[in-house]
Design brief:
Layout lengths: L1 E5 L10 H11 L3 E5 L17 E4 L4 H12 L4 E2 L2 H8 L1 H10 L7 E4 L14 E5 L9 E3 L2 H5 L8 E5 L7 E7 L2 E7 L6 H5 L1 E3 L3 H14 L3 E9 L2 E9 L9 H17 L7 H4 L2 H9 L6 H19 L1
Parallel strand pairs: 1-2, 1-3, 3-4
Antiparallel strand pairs: 5-8, 6-7, 6-8, 9-10, 9-12, 10-11, 12-13
């Protein structure tokens, strides 16, 4: 069994859940190759499938392009290149989640900050890089003058209504059938802040998290939730996060990845069918330039009604 892991090179001293998983996979007999596309030029004519499974851990523009080339060559990638690309784009991520009935803050897209200033009359806004990660570049604005003077990242500019959290943010991690919660301070200042405090995920938050995974057809991901005014809001979702604070995260990832690689080697889907036939497909119809057939539109309406009903329950 051969597994290729697309990730940035880690120092020997920096153990992470992913490096622990790699060590356990190798100890169990799997052939694991670390792929670092940023370290040398890639000859696209020589990109071919050489592993049963590719794990797309790093999602930079370069690694996503490399994953695209592998995808075009027929590689099996976890999470898949199309899903990883969509989750990298926070505008599209929010649209997919909204279509699935997931509770999110009011979200706006603009070409320059002047268009957003009038929205402050209804309350503060959070400005985010539309392709950001790990909270880098996220800012909260209350004052019109401060927002007007802000030099944002390249457009489109993504803004969400700010809801002051009640306590710490909730990070929800899903690894296959398992779900974990970690309370974290944002922004983190220390290592302890980054690890956070584990908590038992309430049924409502577990349902919301599962709905997010169903929307994209995946079962390995993370969701950020804030509780404000007694209501949960999903403010971000990510493909293959760091899983910091999850008990035995390395072991759990190793077992998940081994099972996925075994399915891939047998020519089976790496994500169980229950996740693969998901709201993600209906959103692809909604966003597609190809009109859906009447029967497909009827199914989309039924699924949307079902998702929104579950979110309101």
């Amino acid at each position: 069994m051969r597994i290729g892991v697309i990730m940035r090179r880690q120092s020997a001293a920096s153990a992470t859940p992913m490096t622990e998983a790699i060590a356990q996979l190798a100890a169990g007999g799997a052939t694991v190759e670390l792929l670092h596309p940023n370290e040398r030029p890639i000859d696209l004519s020589r990109v071919r499938v050489e592993h049963d499974l590719y794990v797309l851990k790093e999602k930079s523009d370069l690694t996503l392009s490399f994953a695209a080339a592998l995808h075009a060559a027929g590689a099996t990638i976890l999470n898949s290149f199309p899903v990883s690309l969509r989750l990298r784009d926070k505008v599209l991520t929010c649209k997919v989640l909204q279509a699935a009935g997931v509770p999110t803050p009011a979200t706006y897209v603009a070409s320059h900050v002047a268009q957003l200033v009038p929205l402050l009359a209804a309350g503060p806004l959070v400005i985010k890089p539309y392709r950001g990660s790990q909270g880098v570049g996220v800012r909260v604005f209350h004052d019109p003058a401060e927002l007007s003077a802000f030099s944002p990242p390249p457009e489109p500019i993504l803004a969400q209504r700010y809801h002051r959290p009640e306590g710490r943010d909730r990070k929800i991690y899903v690894i296959g059938d398992e779900i974990f919660g970690v309370k974290r301070i944002w922004p983190p200042q220390t290592v302890a802040d980054k690890l956070g405090e584990p908590f038992e995920v309430e049924p409502e938050l577990a349902e919301i998290a599962r709905c997010c995974g169903d929307a994209f057809g995946i079962d390995l991901y993370g969701v950020d939730i804030v509780i404000s005014g007694g209501r949960p809001y999903v403010v971000d979702a990510s493909s293959f996060p760091g899983f910091k604070g999850v008990p035995d995260a390395g072991g759990r990832l190793a077992r998940y990845l081994r099972a996925a690689a075994e399915r891939a080697a047998r020519g089976e889907p790496v994500v169980p069918a229950a996740c693969g036939d998901s709201a993600f497909k209906l959103v692809l119809h909604l966003l597609s330039t190809t009109p859906a057939a009447p029967a497909e539109l009827d199914r989309i309406r039924r699924l949307l009604d079902e998702r929104q009903g579950r979110a309101r329950a």
